[in-house]
């Protein structure tokens, strides 16, 4: 690793006007703040910010980004404040350091709701200044390069996060080299045996065939000389993770994998790119379906290149990328090229994508996401997929993620077209809506007046934009049903506190909750987006917590027709307070399932049997049996104490079955009669806290039918 003098010299080589003194001061300030701190490897902590700055200097980035790299951990990990950084190095650097600090605190691999919320913050940081992401990616790259000094559990968590989030993000902003290195470093932690196996096979292959890369590189140079083009030719074996991914996708072994070598030809002009393509296809046979022209149809991150795969020496498939020098700069650094310097001037590369415009276009589809779950779905679907380019009948280009269908194509054109879609033609041939589109195909959408999105479309659509539009339309279609159910829920809630439900009362509640009107209030109640407890709380806060009389067990469910019989499903044993759905069953009325019950998948193709239901709000009797699986110490008095703990929570044990009995422990299944989900959690918490209870789990068994 370079010292600070070497770093400054490197920066001066591409930016002679760089303020070396400012960079040196940033290093000294960072070193002083991190004094006494050490990395897991035992090195002084300042080695890490210096290494991050070197990675960014390799991309020829500006002074502010380099200074930010040197200071990126000071606000989070030392006594330095935002104001200290602003006073010494200016508000722009302070803003960048603050952005990196906030990103470092985001838990992008946490639970889904929190993850979606944090992804929004990630995109907000990107929209303010993309350099925040560049510093964070360089920070992650150096951490992955030195990951072996971490504890094994920390290595696995960081590698998983890198593979799932940071590597795809690097690829999406055009830094493909970084994506490949991050993936391979993570792969070495997550599956070292597979990686080592691929490396060993490479060594064996090279011993058997000689240096294939040198031979094919020489062949390509001969073809360039033949057509009079002076260009650079580079070849390399693909990285182990890239090979592993292909083996997994194609379900084939290493010996059957052909295109494990990649070659790159760099020329001066666009016209020469196509001449090189012609020369290569004249010499070697092109592999059908493996040609992509990203020069005429560039990726949204500015990437331009021609990709082709040919059968080279001994029939081995090789991938060749052909691009100009300017295209190569963008391919190597992506949007980072926007800040790149050469000879003291910002690089004016015509292929560089403006980061502000790029992020705005990326965020456009996410703005329509109504909640965190939809946003996260959109990120996963749109952010981490390659693109295909299809044409409208008029020849206009539509960019879609890989695997997109005609439905996605329709919604990409306009929501109105998507909603009215009844069919599609691809290259003039009628195809099913679930057909996967390929590069260069022409797609025509057939529409009909009165057509509305179907629920099955959610399984067909791939893009977040299409899924959000379909979901909104389905919600609108369900609105009448939700309003009807919401009216019934509201009536029961008002009756529960001995109040009369009036339109004026509902209108007052809607206004207090900042909802558009009474229908919106009722629709949200029916869709379980608003609770009746909240409704009563807004109108009658003094009554919201009153206990009231115990609800009759036969009237526990709201939403049943008339006096329809019902029973709780044994497979999931739902309790009051949990989201539920009813499934009609001949001779048994309605079977009540928890909304996340795995057996519901058996009824997906029978929507006519589904009934929207809710538990009555109020106090339920202790008649809702839940089965717990407990492992406890086999010792005198333990079982008696466990039973006493359950009784202390005012719950009754209705059955107990010994599953396993060993000299040192029991495993029992215990049926406990409960009032509500809160009651269940109280019982479970009391048991978990006992020192003789090793494990406790709620039993949900799909094989236990009603």
Which secondary structure elements does this structure contain, and how are they paired or packed?
Blueprint: H1 4-14, H2 20-33, H3 47-58, H4 63-71, H5 74-77, H6 82-89, H7 91-105, H8 112-128, H9 131-145, H10 152-172, H11 176-190, H12 192-209, H13 212-226, E1 232-237, H14 240-250, E2 261-267, H15 270-283, E3 285-286, E4 292-293, E5 306-311, E6 317-324, H16 325-333, E7 341-342, E8 345-346, H17 355-364, H18 372-383, E9 387-391, E10 397-401, H19 406-413, H20 415-419, E11 421-426, E12 429-431, E13 443-447, H21 457-460, H22 464-496, H23 503-512, H24 518-526, H25 532-539, E14 557-558, E15 566-568, E16 580-585, E17 589-594, E18 610-615, E19 624-633, H26 638-648, E20 652-661, E21 665-674, H27 677-688, E22 693-698
Parallel strand pairs: 2-6, 15-17
Antiparallel strand pairs: 1-2, 3-5, 4-5, 5-6, 7-8, 9-10, 11-12, 11-13, 14-18, 16-17, 16-18, 19-21, 19-22, 20-21
Helix pairs in contact: 1-2, 1-3, 2-4, 3-4, 3-9, 4-7, 6-7, 7-9, 8-17, 8-18, 9-11, 10-11, 11-12, 12-14, 13-15, 18-22, 22-24, 22-25
* Total of DSSP H or I helical runs spanning 4+ residues: 27
| Mean pLDDT reading | 82
- Which structural class matches the secondary elements? alpha+beta
How many domain regions? 5
The low-confidence parts are none
CATH topology (level 3) name of the largest domain: Hypothetical protein af1432
Query: What kind of sheet is the major sheet?
Result: 6 strands, mixed
* Tally of DSSP β-strands: 22
For the termini, the CA-CA separation is 67 Å
Radius of gyration using CA atoms only: 31 Å
Q: Class of the largest domain in CATH? A: Mainly Alpha
CATH architecture of the largest domain: Orthogonal Bundle
